[in-house]
Amino acid sequence: MKYAFAFLTIIIGLTLEAQSNILSTNLAAKQVMLGNYNPADYASTNPISHHDDIIQGINANINADSLKVYLEEMASFSTRNTGSDTVSSSTGIGAARRWAYQKFESFSQVNENRLITSYLQFDQTICSMAQHRNVFAVLPGTDTIHNRIILIEAHFDSRCDQVCDVNCVAEGMEDNGSGSALVLELARVMSQYTYKSTIVFMLTIGEEQGLYGSNAFSQFSVDNDIPIHAVLNNDVIGGVICGATSSAPSCPGENAVDSTQVRFFSKGGFDSQNKQLARYLKLQYQEELKPLVNVPMSITIMSGEDRAGRGGDHIPFRQDGFRAMRFTSAHEHGDASNGVGYTDRQHTSTDILGVDTNGDMVIDSFFVDFNYLARNATINGVGAAMIAIGPKVCDLNIETSPGPEIIIKITEQTNYDHYRVGLRTINNDWDSVYVIDSALDTIFPTVANDYIVSVASVDEYGIESLFSREILLPDDELSIAETNDSEQGIELLQNHPNPFDEATIITVKLNEKLQYQSAQVIIRDIQGKEIERLPIRLENQMNEVLYNHGYKRVGTYTYTLVIDGRNIATKMMVFAN
After folding, report:
1. CATH of the structural domain 490-576, one choice from 3.40.50.10420, 2.60.40.1930, 3.40.630.30, 1.10.530.10
2. How far apart are the first and last CA of the chain?
3. How far is CA 254 from the centre of its chain?
4. pTM value?
5. CA distance 142 to 144
6. What is the pLDDT of residues 344-381, one digit of tens each?
7. Whole-number Å distance between alpha carbons of 156 and 135
């Protein structure tokens, strides 16, 4: 996790000194990710591949006690700082990653050696250390013709206040022992089943110094044409207690508890493959998993790519063009600012598993909720599994219609009997998801509105693919009337905040190409005082800017689109969180 200024400084440093000599220490792992292997060599003698069996198995077998044991073992290394000891057998990042490697190996041994364990080694000076290693395990898929990689990851490293303090005790239980335990448990459970796509389970290092480990794997994938289909990053995913300084958007107040909500962060708004991934994962939870669980979870799709001023390991993958999103707890214990008076646990020696309240030398009050962590692991696992067994992504066009109906024409992957159509308006979630029965079909939305439309292929088992690109309706070819509240051809749309969100997306719709020099969105309070100026590029049909207004801000504000010094349109927005 990073705090605002430090994170930006680190990312600037990342671009100045890139990794070199990036390699997989196990050549077989690389060849599998490239699709250069015989699936029969990794086939189970009793393959379990039906989606119902996989969903029920993941739900039944994710074990809160296993997660607790992993965390206790991670805590025993004292620190997992990226620059800490690599020689000791008991302390530091070297001992910790060798332990993680052996855990992956042990899972493979009880599952017919179907997991291929490797390090991703790269050269880069981080905390005065020149060479570093991620740990990962590859579960080969059965389809090498349509080779796809689904990556489930978490950062393994920990830290105290100073990013390269290798001597302080930094057990890092919430940040990010919780995510690391989740990845290990999913490797243990998911390697029992058979998928069409290859699944990679990865623990990265160097996240706390600048997302170095994830950047190395993403660069390795780009350099070697490894077809990453989706990235599920897990970071600060097991805590339920609110800190005094939790990064927005997070908690309602210190010591508040939330064990039934998880946040999905991803980059973009309109036509964002990252938001589409987040929506897909939420849909799989609602339709496939929620009917089976004892404790239902609330999933909130956030507007921003991360918390205000923060960042995580999904970002390098998104920057390289891969679909990527982040799972994070509803509540965090701190914003990692570590300034004067900072009392929260994140990025301190107090980020521990829990405390002994009765003096019997046994922890009895835990800061990580193992059952909550298990529920989040199950959401990850089922979502990743559905991607890994689902069909190929399709594409669409919209046919001209004389009325309010929407005629969907599938233009790629036209051989399926069924497709799903996702419709949304200004929400981060889909408003409705329809089923159509052929590659050319019609839907009848229940409410007249501007719609954003995307589609997914559906196979013979009812499993949908990830959703396609988005198309905005109505457009100039449709007969539904358009209204502009500003100048001809330019529409300033209503902002769309998300509940429990610190950010809101402001959208400008262009109905025709615009020639201009500069454009800004100016935020003012109700008295007219300017709060912020946001540059916006007006190049596409839908043009968006993210305004981080901050958690707990309330009141009425205005936002004005200004193009080449002229006020084009003004709208009001109300914050009530």
Report:
1. 2.60.40.1930
2. 24
3. 26
4. 0.92
5. 6
6. 999 999 999 999 999 999 999 999 999 999 999 999 99
7. 9
